[in-house]
Amino acid sequence: MYRILIVDDEPIIANGIYDLLNQMTSSELDLYKCYSGDEALDILNRIRVDIVITDINMPGMDGLQLMEEINRIWPGCKVVFLTGYSSFDYVYTAIRYPNVSYILKTESYKRIVETVEAKMAEIAEELKLLDLAAKVERQMDTIRHFQQMSYLGDLLLGETDPSDRDEQLRELGLAFEPASPVALIIGRIDGQDSYAAFTGKSQRMYSVNVITEEKLTAVSAFCFAPVRSNMVWIVQPNDSFRGVIADQADHPDHPGQAGCQSQSKAGWHKFAAYLNGMLESVQNLCRETLGFTVSFAVGSVPVLWEDIHQKYRLLCGIVGFKWGDGTEMLLSEEQMVRHDTDRYNAADEREGNLPLRMEKLKACLEAGQRDEFMRLYDGLTGGVERTDANYFKTVERYYAVSSILLSYVNEKKLADKLPELHRIGQIEAHDSSSGAMFYLAGLANTLFDLRGAEQETSTASVIESIQRYIGDSLQGDLSLLQLAETFYFNPSYLSRLYKQATGTNLSDYIIDRRVAAAKELLADKQYKINEIAAKVGVDSVSNFSRYFKKHTGMTPQQYRDVHMK
Q1: What is the DSSP string of 440-481?
Q2: Which of 160, 246, 520, 552 has the fewest CB atoms within 10 Å around its CB?
Q3: Residue 100 Rama label (left phi>0; alpha psi -120 to 50; beta)
Q4: What are phi and psi of 80, to 5 degrees?
């Protein structure tokens, strides 16, 4: 799917090009239109755009100024200038930039279609030209890279000494500013078994990292590490984004404070939006060039170095509720239900080995990682049948695990679905120590099964809400971007989720609802055709006539004449 933005201060031109491209059937397009450079910039700050078709001479921000912003925000975006001016100055300024084409308004609509198709072909060709294998091999041969990964893994698990962190970063060649906050990204290859062969699993992870590093051009420091089944990146914004953050932090509405609080919330939201857009490109490349899908979760707020461990556990908890069924996702911390980060206490993990192992077991339960949970559980309880004499140690482990399971049951309100739950608080109710541990393993498996069923129910509820909203809002904005923002999803993920759940494209469902509503209104003679057009969200009678005829084979008047007889 290609995302195209049309910008022209003359609505008739913007609407005409929008309708023209909407009729292209050779490619799946996600189209947006607006009538000023400022409106376009607002859209570009919210979503990644592949192609921008824009007038040059517009009031306020003109096309050339908009192009400067496009190159700053989305360097790979293709720009097509559509203008009535053939001045050499305009042409010269435009052709100095890569990815830019120039079309006169006097040229035909056919020329516009040909140019858009050429730009889409360029994008497709760029996807094929990435030389992944050579870059992956070079990274795997770099000893320092493995040292960086090892340190990052320990940092995320809270197993590093904060007193020598600045020195460690310098020695490892990591170009981070230790006094500045960072953003955290977690990725996972969808459907990958925790016990998959190491070679194949690591190669896939490194391939994803190569593409990610290629795309994240607006970061000044970047570090990657595989941690268990996750891929983790720590990033800091480069000078262009730091300038935006600093400017807004100095604004009277954002008085400067220490640490993360001195960072502009709006500035970091723009940086998070940039990360989301680039990771969407990474997902497309992985799907089209590597043959598998990848899910990501992005922290929406800055995090200090000493809080990275807690932030990592927070994001793991967030994505754990959503990941697990193999569906490609791109999640934002802001879009998910917020968790209480205070429940992760790093000091507790250092008090002994058992608390640390319990924290890992708890994280697996919350993340839906059944295989990893059972592997850790078997390691924790293995040999119980041979150590009945050590009764008190067995009791300690039993109640430590049962506490984790019971907390999860209470949090998810699952008690009424577990008829044998009353046995969890009485180790004496079991025939033996090994029987007690077998009971907990069975309870954990039941919780994982219920979690999977809950995810399916949650998806059905979301789809039902979207369809109800569409039915109630036919005369309003039903663009993919508007729906995604209304229901707190990434636009591409919402489109794929709807298609996967219903077997129908979201855009087709909207068309069907609008056409059905139009038919019903046309059968009622009290409504004029221009009133019906407005009620179903079409901005003019002529556009409504074309729209209705395209999908029914009749004009609105012809349909009314047939059904009013």
Answers
A1: HHHHHHHHHHHHHHHHHHHHHHHHHHHHHHHHH-TTS---HH
A2: 520
A3: beta
A4: -120, 115
Listed residue (140, 496, 132, 139) closest to 286, CA to CA:
132
Phi, psi of 526, rounded to the nearest 5 degrees: -75, -15
Measured CA to CA in angstroms, residue 388 lies from 64, 96, 432 at distances of: 78, 79, 8
Nearest Cα to Cα of residue 414 among 364, 456, 454: 454
List pLDDT tens digits, range 431-475: 566 778 888 988 998 888 887 766 666 678 888 889 999 999 998
Closest CA to 27 of 121, 130, 110: 121
Report yes or no: 398 and 427 within 8 Å, Cβ to Cβ.
Answer: yes
Give residue 126's identity as a one-letter amino acid code.
E
| Cα–Cα dist 547/511, whole Å | 9
Written as one letter, the residue type at 105 is K
Q: Is the pLDDT of residue 220 over 80?
A: no
Helices 433-472 and 506-522, axial angle in degrees (round to 10): 40
CB contact at 8 A, 309 and 158: yes
The two tokens of residue 531 are 């009133």
Question: For residues 38 and 40, what is the distance between their CA atoms, to the nearest angstrom?
Answer: 5
Task: Yes or no: say if 77 and 53 are a contact pair by the CB < 8 Å rule.
Answer: no
The token duo for 44 is 């570009």
75 and 98 in contact (C-beta within 8 Å)? no
- Output the CA torsion sign for 187, 192, 195, 199: negative
The one-letter code for the residue type at 370 is: R
pLDDT digits (tens, 9 = 90+) for 298-349: 887 788 888 888 888 777 655 544 554 567 788 777 665 443 333 333 333 3
- Residue 476, pLDDT > 80, answer yes
- Amino acid identity, position 390: N
Tokens encoding 116? 């858009």
Q: Encoding tokens for residue 478?
A: 């039903």
CA 175 vs. chain centroid, Å, equals 26
Amino acid letter for position 494? L
What DSSP line would sit under 1-55, residue for residue? -EEEEEE-SSHHHHHHHHHHHHT--SS-EEEEEESSHHHHHHHHTTS--SEEEE-
Between CA 481 and CA 502 the distance in angstroms is 19
Which residues, in sequence order, are CB contacts of 538 under 8 Å at separation 6+? 514, 544, 547
Scanning the structure block, which residue is given the tokens 């999908």? Answer: 551
What is the C-alpha to C-alpha distance for residues 73 and 66, in angstroms, rounded to an integer?
Answer: 11
Please name the residue that has the structure tokens 């008739």: 12
Q: Is 308 helix (H, G, I), strand (E, B) or coil?
A: helix
Can you state the angle between helices 88-95 and 63-73, rounded to 10 degrees? 0
pLDDT tens figures, 262-272 = 456 677 778 88
User: Which one-letter DSSP state was computed for residue 417?
Assistant: G
- The owner of tokens 């000023």 is 36
Question: Which single residue is written with the structure tokens 């989305």?
Answer: 74
Tell me if 363 sits within 8 A of 319, measured CB to CB: no
* 321, 383, 438, 441, 455 from 416: Cα distances, Å: 21, 33, 21, 19, 18
Give yes or no for a contact between 5 and 49, defined as CB atoms under 8 angstroms apart.
yes
Tokens of 397: 């482990």
